[in-house]
Structures are given as C-alpha cells and as structure tokens.
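The material for today's practical consists of a large collection of protein records. Backbone structure tokens are a discrete shorthand for how the chain folds in space. An example says more than a description, so a record of this kind follows:
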Amino acid sequence: MTTESHETTGAYVTPGQEFTRDTAYIQTRVTADGRDGYPVEPGRYRLVVARACPWANRAIIVRRLLGLEGALSMGVCGPTHDRRSWTFDLDPGGVDPVLGIPRLQDAYFARFPGYERGITVPALVEVATGQVVTNDYAQLTLDLSTQWREHHRDGAPELYPEHLRDEIDAVAKLVFRDVNNGVYKCGFAGSQAAYERAYTRLFDRLDWLTQRLSTQRYLVGDTLTEADVRLFTTLVRFDAVYHGHFKCNRQKLTEMPVLWAYARDLFQTPGFGDTVDFDHIKRHYYVVHTDLNPTQIVPSGPDLAGWLVPSGREALGGRPFGDGTPPGPPLAAEIVPREHTAAG
C-alpha cells in the first residue's frame, strides 16, 4: 500500500489551543448478566482493532493473555484510514470476512445512523446484527477480565484482581492523563505554551514511573496487571513515533534505563511483544497525521534489535502470571509478519 492511495485526513491540531480528547464513548457493556442487553456469549461479538492504535493494542494484549481467542474473534483494520473511517484493507477485497463490511463506520451507522463522533478502535461489534456495541476501550479490557471469566483459558492471569483495583485505577488514571494521552497533548498542541505544559507533565510522570519501577518489577503488586498493559502500549511506540513525530524529545525510551528495561521485560513476555506491529505503528502516525507530516514520509528507523536484549528485571522478583501460566503461541492468522517485528 502506498501513501498516495490515502486522502488527507484533516487537521488534528487546533491553532492556539491544547489538545482535548473526546472521551464520550459508547458506554454499552457486554456483561455476564447482560444488564445492557448484551450478554457474554462465545461467537456473538467480534473485536475490531488496528495494530497501529495504542488503545486497540491494549485489547489485543488482554484478549491474548486471557486466552479469549476462541470466544471472541478479532478483525484487524489496516494501519491508515481516510477522513471517513478505519477500513478492512488487509482483508481480501477490502471486506471483513465475518462482518462483511469494508469500513468500521458501517457497524457504527448500523446502530446509530448518522453517528457523528469518532469511528474508533477498539470496537466490539455484534456479528448477527452488524451493530457496534461499544468502543469504550478503558472499560472493555476490564470487562474482558471480569465479565468473560467463564471463557478464560486455564492458567489465565488475574489482570484486575479485586484487592488491587483501587491502586490499579489510581495508577492508570495518572498514566492516562500524563503519558497515554500526554504524548498526544504534546503532538497535537496548538500553541507553544500548551506543548510545554504537556511536555513537562509527560516527563515528570515518566520520572515518577522510573522511581516507582526502580525497586519493583511491575506497576502494582508482584504480577502483571491492567496497569502494565496500559503503560506498555505507549512505551512501545515512544521511540518509533512519539519522540520525533510528537516532539516528546527530552530523551528516547532507550535513554531512560529503568523504563527501557521495564518495557523490554514486558515486550519479551508472551502476549505483549508478539502483538506489536512496528510497520503499522509508523505508517499510521506518519501517514495519517498530514498536518504534522505533510510529506507522509515514514522514517526507516529506529533500530529495533534492542527490544530483544534481556532486561535483567527478573532480579527484582515478581511472577509475571502469578499462579497462572503464559499464553500459548498466537493463532496462525493473527501472527504479526516477522518483517514488522523486532526480529525482522
């Protein structure tokens, strides 16, 4: 796919203003008791993602760690999109083979004709009706952990253990504000002052995370939790796109020893690095954000070999999966092409 095949997608920066994310997502939930009319049922829903997107990457990781592949199928959009919608251009004929649609917007419009907010991933779509159920990415992964338990694999980890939820939520809130969304506030800042505020908060929070992770292997407790998933998807994109494209350039991740080792530890954990497609990540940011990168030239770097260097973090203790076990290999149809990975 060439960059020339995509329309300019419009501006992401509002001159003179700071970036404000629209967080009014579709709050319908898929739950064990079906309280919103959508009960958990194997095969009833399809998780639509894009490997380029950090918010969708969370759902891909959690689904894989919990072993939900057999209960919840996954459709993968291409790395770029036009003004209208994410598209299924990776599939034969540009149509999702399960939903039978070329654009994710078709699922949104099937439930909400004329839907005016963003057509975002991840999204859960009801297969029979072709209607979007939810795109509330933060609640979605928590529900995969708590509402889909009956369909978890044997040995699935406790990513949202009840006794740690308050701490996980508190850490995740800070990480979202200053890091997950903070990089966007830098990149899409419409004024120097807005950029500098976001930049300061981002690196102050990264310094705070460095201190926290210098003496413990994981963010909360001694096992992997939802908090680690949420931080990882930003860190793994940091040097590839946020450092340069979003001007988050006090340091590269590779120049922050504690966070770099932490990110490598996660990357080398089954279910994390094997979901990451660096080619899709770079093509998305550098092609879609034409107001930041009007040439749509995608950088060749950075060198990815360092992601496979042992982290040494096991010396801090901790058990990645607690009393559980690692997930098995990815489904054959969901393997990231080798040339798009650190091993490529």
